[in-house]
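User: Assemble these into one structure.

Assistant: Restating your components, then the assembled model:
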Amino acid sequence: MSPPLLQVNDLKKHFPVSKGLFGRKSEWVYAVDGVSFEIARGETLSLVGESGCGKSTVGRAILRLFDITSGQVILDGQRIDDAHPSTMRQMRRRVQVVFQDPFSSLNPRMRVRDILAEPIRNFGLAKSAEDLEVRVTALMDTVRLPREALNRRPHEFSGGQRQRIGIARALAAEPELIVCDEAVSALDVSVKAQIVNLLQDLQQKFGLALLFISHDLAIVEHMTHRVAVMYLGKIVEVAPRREIFAAPRHPYTKALLSAVPLPEPGAQRNPIILGGDVPSPINPPSGCRFHTRCPYVFDRCRTEEPQLRAAEGDQWVACHLDALPAG
Amino acid sequence: MALLEVENLQTHFRTPSGINRAVDGVSFHVNEGETLAIVGESGCGKSVTSMSLMRLIPEPPGRIAGAIRFAGRDLLKLSDREMRAIRGNDISMIFQEPMTSLNPVLTVGRQIRETLMIHQGLDKQAAEAHAIEMLTLVGIPEPKRRVREYPHQLSGGMRQRVMIAVALACNPKLLIADEPTTALDVTIQAQILKLMLDLKSRVGAAIILITHDLGVVAEIAERVMVMYAGRKVEEAPVAELFRSPRHPYTQGLLGAVPRLGSSLTGTARRLAEIPGQVPDLRKPITGCVFAGRCALATDLCRQYAPGLEEKAPRHVAACHYAAKGAVAA
């Protein structure tokens, strides 16, 4: 069996925060604290969780937008977390990103043509000026934007159209993996549907793998093959779509799913309302990080941190409760 | 009995490139104790409508016309002074972003006290006691300590609770909630929605809920008004609207949201797209506002704007074809 496209082993990223008048007393934000997962070719893995759970930090670590604290990021069998800049350059072509805000992620001074041509030139993908032009127009067709729009600048487009430009730019580098960091979250309902459909079509067409970072569980269910649920810098559950949505095992996953309001008036649901707020990642709770809000907490949870272990088939859960015999 | 009656509301803004008809002839009412949701996408005029009700639109460049009758009085005819006595007292508002709507340099307690001292004429001690009561009511732990804290010391969910406490301090008859949970995480959203439902049954205020989230609408609204390009295109009781939407735009919106659990029931399908974009509101629109994006549009739609017609009991829609039943998705 060929290795997975992307492998993340025990990834940690801690950010320093300075306290005190002259920033002397330094504390750490444990943004991502030991996360492991794999993504196969052509697969969509979704990272879900609430603000501050570290899902975007994982995405950025894979893109190597900063150096990680410890752990490994392996792309196609080759470590990229400590790769030399010259090898990193080629690796960067293979992993691209689409950001949330299409207003701040496109250079307002550049024409669409140049925005799309830049990655093609940068990675030397075009053989000639004609080839470059062919590629750029093909990209516009792929993301269903009119070719005339190539000479316009980002401010002339609506949010949905800009997100299409962002996607075209990511595709320009011919990547194998695209990190979509809340790529549809800022869009209106009808436009969101257009972009979701586009991403699904592109995945089919190019065999792309997607790391889909989102807090919108209904969209995730619609798009994904597998889901990893994060809470305070840890993965608490990872499983194929069917298992997560039909039979979530971790109490946090259950609460998260039950909290989503359904567009069905009078629907019978029993939301599990969690008390309190997410604790600070500067000083995460001892033992299981979810124990301060968990409705099923018992003594062991407060002291011992549960490890992610296989519950059933491909469903992995980090919960002491799950390790107990059923009943 | 109608607590609020809005008639032919028009809120226009003068801009260098023409007059923007952000809200163009919208009429609706809210009964006492009722929850009305106003739904639509960015730029449909839902927030401008709510700001107009509170008369928070700067004039100029804005201009509000029509009638807004609240408990029998036309708010548009009141003096600024009379309007101030109503804002925060009879009608209050909560916004999407609690960090920008709370004053960062005043304690939470002082901000709740302020409305009580101005509108209810309470003295400082009485207002303080009431502020603590309000914080308890909205479920903030340790309210005695929290009244002395500043907004930055609270989490997003807590701040929204404080906003609700400020809004409800004077027992308003109408609460306008503009995207109250949009900026919150889903587990916190569940807390706030539950709080709003609990408080509504206890305080009995009518609520106008402005949102783009159809899940939130289904959860707490009784009646729904759908807006598009500054017009009201459909209105119906919530169950009726979700069961049999009549306007093609409403049908499009409902088809564009994936349902949680769809992968399990085998109902997963490609999401419906509404092609094209919202029209430019600075240009006069002849015919139906949705015609440019509507699959059913004919020459009739492009030439004559459809009026709001009753398609079923208490269910109105502005569509030439909705009545024929041909648009059922």
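The radius of gyration of chain A is 21 Å.
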